[in-house]
Amino acid sequence: MPRPHTTFHELTVGQVADRSGVAISALHFYERKGLIRSTRTAGNQRRYSRDTLRRVAFIRASQHVGISLTAIREALDQLPSERTPTPDDWARLSAAWRTELDARIAQLQALRDDLSECIGCGCLSLRVCHLTNPRDVLGREGAGARRLLSPRTDRVNQG
Amino acid sequence: MPRPHTTFHELTVGQVADRSGVAISALHFYERKGLIRSTRTAGNQRRYSRDTLRRVAFIRASQHVGISLTAIREALDQLPSERTPTPDDWARLSAAWRTELDARIAQLQALRDDLSECIGCGCLSLRVCHLTNPRDVLGREGAGARRLLSPRTDRVNQG
DNA sequence: GCTTGACCTCAACCATGGTTGAGGCCAGAG
DNA sequence: CTCTGGCCTCAACCATGGTTGAGGTCAAGC
């Protein structure tokens, strides 16, 4: 079984796929969309640096929270491009995501509370109900958050 | 301006669109997907009963929470088919949705808390972190929840 | 009886987030 | 030196949630 040659610090696409639990096709897709990067061997094969595993984990985690790839890409673009991100760099991103999450949780809670009122009055339909009059719910997420949680095949990170 | 003839209890698709803030094309789409129903006039035009406004409001509200049309349809299928749903019928649905919402909020909170830990340790990537090891996050939502909140054009229910 | 606007159907198209398959290259092992 | 597994590209396809446009009908009003 001819296995591709790699140095200690490089991973093939297959290795990243195995270790991250993400399909090769998805990795290609993420690369096309600018979420991850690779170098190429003389034979035109992709090689990923180890921190790609972190990036992929970050991508998946973020998707779980309902964030679009575009938004995730924008977040990742904040990472330093010319050095390997430090734990501190990741911590900054995580902190930003926490804020995101707090906001989303607050929205859901507001919705839930409105819904409770609606249960009381049976009004779930018109003008009275905040739920159905959501001009005050906050900002712009665009389309594309495909799932809130739990995609069909989830086993990110075996190792 | 020839306006379609309607009785007091029937609404044209245009009226439903205006009052619900949902595009006519979306109403057609919902009907194809079985989320709403209409009768037809002799001239083959749709007529909606008034509780369609409630249904549409329910659909939009549910979409805001990230629930797919398929799931919404299944919920609506629980409504009595041969009589107009009562406030109580709607209350039962709303209660079910509240449970849904509670679960989603709990998920997001768990994710957020994991994330906070990750910030502490800078681990956001591998095996250690619950966030990236989500085999325990709960159930099956399938694909398709397109947005968590706030679509681009939100003005449901003017009247 | 013609115009006009609201409505109809059906097919094509858009974006997101991917997967699948065809056809081909590269490299290590026998 | 060939076989084979892993990788490559590119195009097509899938689902969700719709929108857009072409071409045609229906009915109120002048």
Describe the structure.
Two copies of one chain form a homodimer. With 159 residues, chain A is mostly helical. Chain A folds into two domains: 7-85, Multidrug-efflux Transporter Regulator, Chain: A, Domain 2 (Orthogonal Bundle), CATH 1.10.1660.10; 97-139. Chain A contains five helices and three strands. Chain A has helices spanning 13-20, 24-32, 51-64, 69-76, 87-121, and strands at residues 10-11, 39-40, 46-49. In chain A, helix 3 (51-64) crosses helix 4. The longest helix of chain A is centred in the middle third of the chain and has 35 residues, at 87-121. The two termini of chain A are 22 Å apart. Chains A and B meet through helix 3 and helix 5 of A and helix 3 and helix 5 of B. The first copy, chain A, binds a DNA duplex (30 and 30 nucleotides) through helix 2.
